[in-house]
């Protein structure tokens, strides 16, 4: 019979301990402590040694590999797969263990358990062990219904690993009850008002009106007079105005820990999406936005409310109040809008009107429920809408 080196060393250690006890140099209880076994096991080992000699100290099961043992070739394939394709390279972190396990099962027909894959990667030194967690925090229970609370956040990160000198922003909307990613779009630059409004419109059109929206204290979300002070909720931003029109409660967080679910969603995407885009060889934002990558809610019913007859064009926009000048013009951020002569009025001079810049760049001017004109992004009259 062929035994491993570890089995031979174990048998030699057991023999030495038994001989020391038989010679009276130590007690049998001390033998149990040295070998790390129970006194009952020591009695069995003594009986086997007295009857079979040195060969009786070997565990004969070690000569017969387990029928559930993973073949060495499969383990080597698993490690080579992570090392050559999904592991760290070029300064970018590789797939985490769970992400690699899901991709390996999906694309490479790996049939081993997650715990085996994790142990194999950690034993081979390809993945480090998780660092100890910080201080204890009490976890906030998720909302019971789908659509009762959604998180909206932007994450500035080098999402395109193959374009190392650029950073993009991922605008993501996550449902609190299911952790479902309702919307995700990569944009160049930071969290612009247009990008946030576009995300809101996509969620409203596909799912409906949520009960509440959870955001951080970004400039588009709340007005903060000076850095480090509490936000002034009496002054609404453009997003705050739109949420109030739609009846959506706006909840503002004051720390990253408070919005843990959106932060964890961003962390998961940073660990997965970056590697998915790198492996797929994607280098541009349009290609990345075409790449498609929870848990069940406590209450299966949905808290989303249908949009109904709400005109999202007039709600999800940049809106400011202006006074019509003597030449019947208005100015919004450098764009001059010339109002045409209105039926039933000799002039519009002095009227307090609302000027709206919509998500597609066009402008419209409203006096109460009456539209005074539509304009292009450069301020020229847009006759098609007026017609």
How far is the N terminus from the C terminus?
95 Å
CATH topology of the largest domain: Nucleotidyltransferase, domain 5
Number of separate domains:
4
Question: How many strands appear in the DSSP assignment?
Answer: 13
H/E series, N to C? HHHHHHEEEEHEHEHHEHEEEEEEH
Please characterize this protein's 3D structure.
The structure is a single chain. The chain starts with a helix and ends with a helix. The chain folds into four domains: about 5-65, no CATH class; about 70-125; about 145-300, Nucleotidyltransferase, domain 5 (2-Layer Sandwich); about 315-385, no CATH class. It is an alpha/beta fold and about 375 residues long. The chain is about 35% helix and about 20% strand. The strands form four sheets. It has a five-stranded mixed β-sheet, sandwiched between helices. The longest helix is centred in the last third of the chain and has 20 residues, at about 260-280. The protein has helices at about 5-20, 30-35, 40-50, 70-85, 95-105, 115-125, 195-205, 240-245, 260-280, 285-290, 310-315, 385; strands at about 145, 150-155, 170-175, 180-190, 210-215, 250, 300, 320-325, 330, 335-340, 350-355, 365, 370-375.
């Amino acid at each position: 019979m062929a035994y491993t080196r570890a089995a031979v060393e174990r048998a030699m250690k057991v023999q030495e301990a038994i001989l020391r006890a038989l010679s009276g140099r130590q007690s049998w209880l001390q033998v149990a402590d040295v070998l790390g076994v129970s006194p009952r096991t020591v009695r069995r080992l003594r009986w086997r040694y007295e009857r079979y000699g040195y060969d009786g100290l070997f565990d004969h099961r070690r000569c017969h590999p387990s029928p559930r043992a993973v073949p060495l070739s499969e383990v080597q394939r698993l490690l080579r797969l992570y090392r050559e394709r999904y592991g760290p390279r070029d300064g970018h972190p590789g797939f985490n263990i769970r992400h690699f396990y899901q991709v390996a099962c999906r694309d490479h027909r790996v049939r081993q358990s997650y715990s085996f894959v994790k142990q194999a990667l950690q034993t081979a030194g390809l993945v480090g062990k998780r660092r100890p967690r910080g201080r204890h925090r009490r976890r906030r229970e998720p909302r019971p219904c789908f659509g009762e609370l959604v998180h909206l956040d932007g994450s500035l990160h080098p999402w395109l690993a193959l374009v190392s000198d650029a950073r993009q922003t991922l605008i993501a909307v996550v449902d609190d009850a299911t952790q479902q990613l309702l919307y995700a779009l990569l944009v160049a630059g930071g969290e612009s008002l247009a990008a946030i409004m576009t995300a809101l419109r996509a969620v409203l059109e596909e799912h409906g009106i949520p009960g509440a929206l959870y955001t951080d204290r970004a400039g588009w979300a709340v007005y903060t007079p000076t850095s480090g002070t509490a936000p002034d909720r009496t002054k609404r931003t453009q997003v705050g105005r739109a949420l109030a029109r739609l009846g959506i409660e706006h909840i503002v967080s004051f720390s990253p820990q408070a919005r843990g679910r959106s932060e964890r969603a961003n962390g998961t995407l940073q660990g997965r999406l970056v590697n998915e885009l790198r492996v797929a060889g994607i280098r541009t934002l349009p290609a990345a936005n075409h790449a498609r990558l929870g848990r069940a809610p406590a209450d299966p019913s949905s808290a989303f409310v249908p949009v109904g007859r709400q005109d999202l064009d007039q709600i999800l926009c940049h809106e400011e109040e202006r006074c019509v000048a003597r030449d019947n013009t208005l100015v919004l951020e450098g764009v001059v809008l010339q109002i045409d002569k209105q039926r039933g009025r000799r002039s519009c001079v002095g009227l307090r009107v609302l000027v709206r810049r919509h998500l597609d760049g066009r402008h419209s001017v409203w006096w109460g429920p009456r539209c005074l004109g539509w304009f292009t992004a450069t301020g020229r009259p847009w006759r098609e809408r007026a017609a």
